[in-house]
């Protein structure tokens, strides 16, 4: 079942120390700014919840995992303040995932574009289906994936980031993503994926929470400057989206 709410939906459940966050939007699970803010706040909330040991991030439906940020909001940007604010949406979510004290397991069932790739990269461990191809197509509309680039590079390296960003019209397969380190395991279908998500998170939830907390910190060493870095990157993207090149590209894309 998928949501038909214009601003999307966000549902959270907690069972046996495992919190599951499920987001959805009628436009291929894309993110309007309001939904990004809600997601960032939810990670902050769960970070302080002693009843939670592990967090699962998933999206609605059996098709796209996430189509990135809201295209309608992107087209509407007409000043630098709004531009920076728009691109700060994913920056704030990635930073909330980075500083969350709980390990985050991504459940990626389908194709992922732009900011959605950043979400997957900000998870601590990702399980996916073979349909979960990825693409960073930002160059095609005159901007770049600058906000999510640090998270993506942390998983796939500089060469992987270059492949994704510079070949902006091509999809990379789920197996490519696994080979590069973005996905930990890839399954044939959603049924197998969900079975493994359940088994894996139950194991994690049975471990010493203090040990998991320390492991989370260890995994993210070297990212302490992201609070400022990602916002600076958001400002860069905010400037680019106001360029004549991007405005013309967006008009063509929309028509």
Terminal CA distance: 30 Å
Total count of strands: 8
The percentage helix is: 40-55%
CATH topology: 2-enoyl-CoA Hydratase, Chain A, domain 1
Structural class: alpha/beta
Radius of gyration: 17 Å
Question: What characteristics describe this protein?
Answer:
255 residues, alpha/beta, two-stranded parallel ribbon, 8 strands, 15% strand, globular
Polypeptide structure, described:
By secondary structure, the chain is of the alpha/beta class. It has a single domain, classed as 2-enoyl-CoA Hydratase, Chain A, domain 1, CATH 3.90.226. Helices cover about 50% and strands about 15% of the residues. The chain has ten helices and eight strands. It has helices spanning about 35-45, 70-75, 80-100, 115-120, 150-165, 175-180, 190-205, 210-220, 225-240, 245-255; strands spanning about 10-15, 20-25, 55-60, 105-110, 110-115, 125-130, 135, 185. A six-stranded mixed beta sheet has the order 1-2-3-4-6-8, with helices on both faces. A two-stranded parallel ribbon has the order 5-7. The radius of gyration is 17 Å and the shape is globular. About 45% of the residues are buried. The mean pLDDT is about 95.
